Structure formats: structure tokens, C-alpha cells
Amino acid sequence: MMLSIILACMVAVVSGCDRLVAPKLGSMDCTEGVDVTRCNFTCELWTEMIGADVLTCLPNGEWDNIYPYCEPDYSVCGKKGAPKCPRITREDLRDFERFLDQLSEEDRAELENITLEVTSLISVRAPASSVCKKSLCSFPCVAYPPKIARQCKKCRRKKLIKCSKRASLFG
């Protein structure tokens, strides 16, 4: 009985809607009503949720909002007494593709512009203070190509940029 409750909390299968799993570094709690399924998401304390904290399965078989992603706070993780900052794995990138698929064309263009700007600054060996643009806060670090993602993490870890929870396009 306990095992089935645990499994129900980790994976939600809803008729008509895609199967959901808890985000990495987060958890999910789904409830099914007579004609609605709603899933609530939370992230570890040292991470920031990007996307929606509640998803509802609509009658058309679609989830009503952006599936969440738990972005590590690179200014917190890795510090003494805090969890180690996780590496970005291939699995993370595959999972994040699902998140990126939900972006509007405008958001995709913004992501591309930030990537090009930071790439050009890195290529001319600009100082970290120039490379660490506030615009890097607009997306989770994993959204960027690997070289930019590493720079994004470094900028946040060294607090060269301070990203407020509201700075993200999704927060």
C-alpha cells in the first residue's frame, strides 16, 4: 500500500494528458477529482522553480501551463553546509528540451540573442564583469549551450550577477 502511494506521488498518468514526472530536484503531488487532475510542484529549498507550480489537465488533453524546472541557485549550492551544485547531465538537457518546446517564438529569439551576446564577449576574452550580463538571469543556465551554461553558473556562483526570482521570463 505504501509503495503505491509513493509511486502515485512520483508519476502521474492522466487520461488525455501526457504523463508527468516530478522535476529533478523537486517533487510532485497530484490529486484527481471527478473531472479534473491537478498536480502541485515544489523544488528543493536551494533551487528556484521556473515554470508553473500547479498544472491542471484540461478537457482537451493538454496541461494548462509550463511544466516546471528546478534551477539550482548557484550562489548557494556548493557553499559550506549547502548541497553540492549538480552537474548538467545529458538527461537534464533532454528533460529541459521539453521545457524549451513550450517557449514562444519571442522567448526563443530572446534566448538566442543572449547566447550570441555572451558568446561574442567570451570569444574576445572580455573580463568576467562584462560577460556576466544581467540578461543571463532571463533563463535557467541549462537553457544555454554548454559553454554559456558554464559561464552562467560561474557568474551566479561568484555573485557577479544577482538574479531575483522575478527576473526570469518564467518566474
From TrEMBL:
| UniProt-listed CDD domains | CCP
In terms of Gene3D superfamilies, this protein maps to: Complement Module, domain 1
Q: Where is the signal peptide?
A: 1-16
Keywords assigned: Disulfide bond, Signal, Sushi
Disulphide bonds annotated for this chain are C43-C70
Boundaries of every Sushi domain copy: 15-72
Q: Which domain of life is it from?
A: Eukaryota
What name does this protein carry?
Sushi domain-containing protein
Q: What is the lineage of its organism?
A: Eukaryota, Metazoa, Chordata, Tunicata, Ascidiacea
